[in-house]
């Protein structure tokens, strides 16, 4: 029965092709193709070994049953046979090791990249920074909360969609520098055969060279806390010309955002606007730990509702959002949120869920804390 | 193997000798019998029941996990509680079910197999069992603390288990310490017993294989449990006392945690499978009516596996960013392990070859073990290949692999052992109809449960996630159904064991099974409370 399962599995795997629900993907790079071939070679060898071993076993179970009236033999060792089944497996291993080593050496060669992207994991999102440009951004899960809670029907790319995908050019060697701001994450895109841990305080390297334009999806592969299952990766590979146009556009947007930020410092926003922006920022950034009702998770994440810091200490409140609190899960959001967004979320937290302080925080107040004035 | 046939004056045949306290089969009554017992058979029974209860508790947690994963979306539990379930399920199954079950078997069988009256250190034996329930009470009670129990996986990688964990981490650390102390005491007891208390004539190369594999296992335990104790202690001080062993900001290294953990963790894997190899090496010859093929090479293969287990740990860490040289070394070393493991499987098949096979329940479990453990071994060989491991690592392919070697490997071997020796322990044949139902239900459901995990893993489903994308939905439904069926099947086993303990069933002969050989089959059934007070002589 099991043998049959194995055989049918191999048959299905052969016919189902690259995007099978049963097998590894061939992927989008030369390396991922090599890895796929290696996987199929290993699988074939294992199936052959299984057929030989289980075959001998089943023949014995059929032919050498006591109910057939057989008399048991009494042999219990044979030096020749035992040497044979030690040496032959060893030779098979050598045969496997050669292509495996060759592929591994190619995978670990991160030299001479055309482009480098710094990938930083944090609970529970990815940050991409294009080295030698001013472009950097966070990439968050884009699936609606309601889909996860089964209130809306689930979309095609449920849990595998993000707000801002990573964009890379095709045909160029892209090097990833991978690290983390908090716990260990692992950046995995199956179609590239790239899976590398993001270790806090250390930088790992990986690379890929994508052949075909397309959208490639992956997930965090190392348990990183509560929302480990909700930090997907989406990579869009574009033709180099399209990629260059995209990058220029992003640089322009980054420049304009900075100017907008400066302009905001001079003016005041209304409480209504701050509250509505604040609610959006809170629900997308803060609510996964502190909960939508501000009550936190006792013992793990503190409540903001009725919190002493939120009710009294404005400067401390802004500071902990900008810089985080070391030794706890509270991370620094200064790089992720704009001055306006921090101002909004502080205002929201100080006026929501019965925290009726009436405080209104402006971007310039946040800037004052950020620059230490 | 069957060289222990010619026994002169086994204790049962010569009941009259100079024994002043004459406590022959004077069995204490009531709860104090179990609390204060220093009898290896009583302690073996305690260990086995404790392991079975923990198996059911850990299994209940697996049911929670499979219920949540029955459909995409979050239905039953919150992600944080889901993580607590995967963590505590792993800890309980490893430290609460598999390891105590093997220790229980060692307690019952090692003295009877080597012709010793009891374990060498009976009071320590009592202690090493009785601290265990407290360890698991502490661990389980932490689930009810504010902030919940441990939620960082049974591998407790730093800094998730240090800076980012809840306060219950202290309880987790304390309970792992107690489990470790218990295991070390148990291991010392096995080693001292085997070294000093073998019957005259029981030379090293006449020892039954269960004794050999447990002896080697005990050395592995003593070597690595202190390493685990060091790891949890560093987690404790990093979290509560401001040290930075695993924190780069203070000069530490989170990857170093993984090196330390897996230096314990990989030998630990063999701690959970070597005694299984021993058990299968008893059962297959009995029901093949033919001596074990390659006894000496079995011993050498076990020792080789144990030695190799110390130089392969980093194959759990290929994605952590090791240098190329280290990746190569650990890949080749890991591949080498398949050689001695293959020798064992070939020897079992050669033992069956041209035997006279019958298929009693222990043999059914042993045959299932050989096939299913080999499947787990072959996927292990695939996982050893570093470039492909980058794709398999931390997916359900790995989950499938280690459940094939641990559930259909270690746990099936424990069930085989219980069915094989239970009639000797109780003196009555167990309910064969129930046992066959238990076997076939378990065999079918366990494969529905774990086989499709290979497919979802290859298709890209990461492990330890409470929710998944839609492409994995169909297989996960099958997996969950298989899981519920496998869980329910164990209730058949529970019913059977209760009947057996009430001494229901047909009385059995001393040898119990037609082809069984060894000292334990020459004492009466049920085994008297005290055996071999005068050592037998083995020729």
TrEMBL record, chain A:
Cellular localisation: Cell membrane; Membrane
GO cellular component: plasma membrane
Domain Cytochrome oxidase subunit II transmembrane region profile: 16-111
Matching SUPFAM superfamilies: Cupredoxins, Cytochrome c, Cytochrome c oxidase subunit II-like, transmembrane region
Superkingdom of the source species: Bacteria
Molecular-function annotations in GO: copper ion binding; cytochrome-c oxidase activity; heme binding; oxidoreductase activity
Functional note: Subunits I and II form the functional core of the enzyme complex. Electrons originating in cytochrome c are transferred via heme a and Cu(A) to the binuclear center formed by heme a3 and Cu(B).
Protein name: Cytochrome c oxidase subunit 2
From TrEMBL, chain B:
Compartments, as annotated in UniProt: Cell membrane; Membrane
Recorded superkingdom: Bacteria
Basic and acidic residues bias spans: 14-24
InterPro entries in the record: Cyt_c_oxase-like_su1_dom, Cyt_c_oxase-like_su1_sf, Cyt_C_Oxase_1, Cyt_c_Oxase_su1_BS, Cyt_c_oxase_su1_dom, Cyt_c_oxidase_su1_bac
Primary location recorded for the protein, binned into one broad class: membrane
Enzyme class, first EC level, given as a word: translocase
Pfam families assigned: COX1
Entry's EC annotation: 7.1.1.9
TM region positions: 46-67, 87-109, 129-149, 169-197, 209-236, 256-280, 292-316, 328-349, 361-385, 397-422, 434-455, 475-498
Catalytic activity: 4 Fe(II)-[cytochrome c] + O2 + 8 H(+)(in) = 4 Fe(III)-[cytochrome c] + 2 H2O + 4 H(+)(out)
Topology with respect to the bilayer: Multi-pass membrane protein
Keywords: Cell membrane, Copper, Electron transport, Heme, Iron, Membrane, Metal-binding, Respiratory chain, Translocase, Transmembrane, Transmembrane helix, Transport
UniProt entry tagged with the keyword Iron: yes
Domain Cytochrome oxidase subunit I profile: 34-539
Cited PROSITE patterns: COX1 (PS50855), COX1_CUB (PS00077)
PANTHER family: CYTOCHROME C OXIDASE SUBUNIT 1
Name of this protein: Cytochrome c oxidase subunit 1
Source organism (scientific name): Alteromonas halophila
Species classification: Bacteria, Pseudomonadati, Pseudomonadota, Gammaproteobacteria, Alteromonadales
């Amino acid at each position: 029965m099991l043998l049959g399962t194995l055989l049918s599995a191999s048959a299905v795997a052969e016919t189902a092709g690259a995007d099978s629900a049963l097998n590894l993907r061939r992927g989008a790079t030369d390396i991922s193709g090599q890895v796929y071939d290696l996987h199929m070679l290993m699988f074939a060898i294992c199936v052959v070994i299984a057929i030989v071993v289980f075959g001998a076993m089943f023949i014995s179970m059929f032919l050498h049953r006591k109910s057939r009236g057989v008399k048991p033999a009494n042999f219990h060792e044979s030096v020749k046979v035992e040497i044979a089944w030690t040496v032959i497996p060893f030779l098979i291993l050598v045969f496997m090791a050669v292509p495996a080593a060759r592929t591994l050496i190619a995978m670990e060669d991160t030299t001479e990249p055309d482009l480098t992207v710094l990938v930083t994991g944090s609970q529970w999102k990815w940050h991409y920074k294009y080295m030698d440009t001013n472009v950097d951004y966070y990439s968050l899960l884009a699936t609606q909360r309601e889909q996860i809670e089964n209130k809306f029907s689930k979309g095609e790319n449920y849990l595998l969609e993000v707000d801002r995908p990573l964009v890379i050019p095709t045909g160029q060697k892209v090097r990833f520098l991978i690290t983390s701001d908090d716990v260990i994450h692992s950046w995995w895109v199956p179609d590239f055969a790239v899976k590398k841990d993001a270790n806090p305080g250390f930088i790992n390297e990986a690379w890929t060279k994508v052949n075909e334009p397309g959208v490639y999806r992956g997930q965090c592969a190392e348990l990183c806390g509560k929302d480990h299952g909700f930090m997907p990766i989406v990579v869009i590979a574009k033709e180099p010309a399209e990629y260059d146009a995209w990058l220029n556009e992003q640089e322009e947007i980054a420049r304009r955002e900075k100017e907008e930020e400066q302009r905001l410092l001079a003016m005041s926003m209304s409480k209504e606007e701050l509250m509505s922006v604040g609610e959006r920022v809170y629900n997308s950034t803060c609510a996964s730990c502190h909960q939508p009702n501000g009550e936190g998770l006792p013992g793990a994440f503190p409540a903001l509702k009725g919190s002493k810091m939120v009710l009294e200490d404005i400067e401390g409140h802004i500071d902990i959002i900008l810089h985080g609190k070391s030794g706890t899960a509270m991370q620094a959001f200064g790089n992720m949120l704009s001055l306006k967004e921090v101002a909004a979320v502080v205002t929201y937290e100080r006026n929501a869920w019965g925290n009726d302080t009436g405080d209104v925080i402006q971007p310039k107040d946040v800037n004052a804390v950020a620059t230490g004035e | 193997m069957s060289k222990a046939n010619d026994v002169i004056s086994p204790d049962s045949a010569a009941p009259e000798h100079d024994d002043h306290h004459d406590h022959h089969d004077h069995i204490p009554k009531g709860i104090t019998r179990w609390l204060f017992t220093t009898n290896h058979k009583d302690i073996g029974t305690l260990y086995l029941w404790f392991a079975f209860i923990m198996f059911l508790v850990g299994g209940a947690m697996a049911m929670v996990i499979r219920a949540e994963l029955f459909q995409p979306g979050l239905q039953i539990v919150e992600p944080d509680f889901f993580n607590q379930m995967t963590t505590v399920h792993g800890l309980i199954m490893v430290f609460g079910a598999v390891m105590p079950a093997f220790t229980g078997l060692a307690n019952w069988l090692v003295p009877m197999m080597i012709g010793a009256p009891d374990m060498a250190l009976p009071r320590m034996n009592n202690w090493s069992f009785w601290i265990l329930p407290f360890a698991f009470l502490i661990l389980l009670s932490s689930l009810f603390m504010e902030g919940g129990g441990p939620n960082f996986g049974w591998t407790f990688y730093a800094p998730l288990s240090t800076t980012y964990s809840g306060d219950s981490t202290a309880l987790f650390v304390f309970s792992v310490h107690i489990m470790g102390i218990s295991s070390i005491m148990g291991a010392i007891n096995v080693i001292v017993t085997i070294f000093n208390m073998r019957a005259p004539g029981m030379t090293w190369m006449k020892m039954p294989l269960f004794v050999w594999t447990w002896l080697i296992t005990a050395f592995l335990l003593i070597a690595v449990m202190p390493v685990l104790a060091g790891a949890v202690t560093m987690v404790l001080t990093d979290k509560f006392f401001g040290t930075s062993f695993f924190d780069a900001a203070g000069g530490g290294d989170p990857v170093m945690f993984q090196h330390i953990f897996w230096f314990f963790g990989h030998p630990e894997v063999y701690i959970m499978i070597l005694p299984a190899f021993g058990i299968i090496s008893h059962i297959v010859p009995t029901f093949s009516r033919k001596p074990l093929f390659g006894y000496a090479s079995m011993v050498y293969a076990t020792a080789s596996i144990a030695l190799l287990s110390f130089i392969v740990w980093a194959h759990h860490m290929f994605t952590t960013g090791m240098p190329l040289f280290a990746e190569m070394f650990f890949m080749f070393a890991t591949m080498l392990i398949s050689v001695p493991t293959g020798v064992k499987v070939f020897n079992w098949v050669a033992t069956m070859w041209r035997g006279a096979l019958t298929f009693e329940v222990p043999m059914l479990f042993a045959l299932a073990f050989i096939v299913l453990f080999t499947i787990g071994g072959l996927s292990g060989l695939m996982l050893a290949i570093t470039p492909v491991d980058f794709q398999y690592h931390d997916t359900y392919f790995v989950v499938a692999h280690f459940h094939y070697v641990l559930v259909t490997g270690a746990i099936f071997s424990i069930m085989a052992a219980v069915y094989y020796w239970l009639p000797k322990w109780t003196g009555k044949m167990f309910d064969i109809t129930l046992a066959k139902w238990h076997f076939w239900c378990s065999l079918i459901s366990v494969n529905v449960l774990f086989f499709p995990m290979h497919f979802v893993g290859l298709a890209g489903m990461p492990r330890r996630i409470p929710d998944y994308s839609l492409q994995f939905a169909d297989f996960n439904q099958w997996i969950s159904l298989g899981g519920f069926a496998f869980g329910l099947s164990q209730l058949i086993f529970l019913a059977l064991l209760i009947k057996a303990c009430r001494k229901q069933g047909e009385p059995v002969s001393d040898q119990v099974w037609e082809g069984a050989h060894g000292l334990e089959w020459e004492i009466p059934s049920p085994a008297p409370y005290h055996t071999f007070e005068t050592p037998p002589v083995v020729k």
